[in-house]
Amino acid sequence: MAGNASEYIQHHLQNLTYGLHPEYGLKFAENAAEAKAMGFWAIHVDTIGWSVVLGGLFLFLFRKAAKSMTQGVPGGLQNFVEIMVEFVDKSVKETFHGRSQLIAPLSLTIFCWVFLMNLMDLVPVDWLPALFGAMGVHYMKVVPTTDVNATMGMSISVFLMIIFYSIKIKGVSGFTKELTLQPFNNKLMIPFNLLLEGVGLLAKPVSLGLRLFGNLYAGELIFILIALLPFWIQWALSVPWAIFHILIITLQAFIFMMLTIVYLSMAHEDH
């Protein structure tokens, strides 16, 4: 039983991986060992696929709401979109102190996209893997944010924007001084300042990506463990956990969005 449970958990935590195997060439990995042998450049097809599908769903729904917007009594979709836009716009106005036409659309995209990816965690753990298994696909992880590659990819993108706007607003000289003359404005303290500020700068994308990954990965693992229990216990535990997990899903999307706004606001501050 322990062996079966272990195999069940490993199977559900394994991504559909495609890459160059040193012995077999380009192929889909049939187990975790083959996926590991493919190395750094292996592609998690399920993570990329579901991310694109959910991103496309976000664009489709918001575009549909924009095209069908009316001055009269709004429909359900229009109400939802207006609430989301007003919520994000208010968050940006309260937190971002610079001027940018990019921050509000970026924040809206981040919140909605991350929320949709997190929401996939509420789909029963066996449904979609079983459906794809019937079509010959042996592995299928449907929650992109439980893949550290996805969360770190998004956080690194935010990090590159932080660097870009820091240099754009402050100039290369200003950005360099920010890293070398803070918190101690003394040339003798430059190495210490650079170490301190450099660690603080690099900690932003790491904490941003790992926080989202850790919370969603833990949530997915709990759902998998619940699925191993007898059927009547599954429902007794999975429903309360799913209700509680809705809060985690929403909160993690909100935190990712707010930290992005805060970091970009700091990048726009010119001391």
TrEMBL record:
Q: Which GO terms describe its biological process?
A: proton motive force-driven plasma membrane ATP synthesis
Q: Name one GO molecular function term.
A: proton-transporting ATP synthase activity, rotational mechanism
Q: Entry's Pfam families?
A: ATP-synt_A
Q: Where in the cell is it found?
A: Cell membrane; Membrane
Keyword NAD assigned to the entry: answer is no
Identify the keywords attached in UniProt to this record, alphabetized. ATP synthesis, Cell membrane, CF(0), Hydrogen ion transport, Ion transport, Membrane, Transmembrane, Transmembrane helix, Transport
Kindly state one GO CC term assigned in the UniProt record.
proton-transporting ATP synthase complex
Gene3D superfamilies according to UniProt: ATP synthase, F0 complex, subunit A
Membrane topology, record value: Multi-pass membrane protein
What InterPro entries does UniProt report for this protein, alphabetically?
Answer: ATP_syn_F0_a_bact/chloroplast, ATP_synth_F0_asu, ATP_synth_F0_asu_AS, F0_ATP_A_sf
Q: Does the keyword Transmembrane helix apply?
A: yes
Q: Which PANTHER family does the UniProt entry name for this protein?
A: ATP SYNTHASE SUBUNIT A, CHLOROPLASTIC (PTHR42823)
Name this polypeptide is given: ATP synthase subunit a
Species whose genome carries this gene = Terasakiispira papahanaumokuakeensis
